[in-house]
């Protein structure tokens, strides 16, 4: 029984360290892959706000437009759209 506990005390932290190290290495290597973070993203989440446990609002910037969407378990619903440069709101949907 003592031998088992000794092996457990040695191998469990070793295994946890290997898992942590592989996660760090994966994150570091993803930055070096061509086309990873260097490419320009077309869609960017600007802001999110939680309304309830299953529903949230999100502002997404896409090709110079900000789009307000509602994200729920059923999918995404576009609520409004605005031009980033002018701030003009277009395509509002009445509730």
UniProtKB/TrEMBL annotation:
Q: Which UniProt keywords apply?
A: Cell projection, Cilium, Flagellum, Membrane, Transmembrane, Transmembrane helix
Q: Where are the transmembrane segments?
A: 6-23
Q: Which domain of life is it from?
A: Bacteria
The entry's protein name is Flagellar biogenesis protein
Which organism is the protein's source? Answer: Qipengyuania algicida
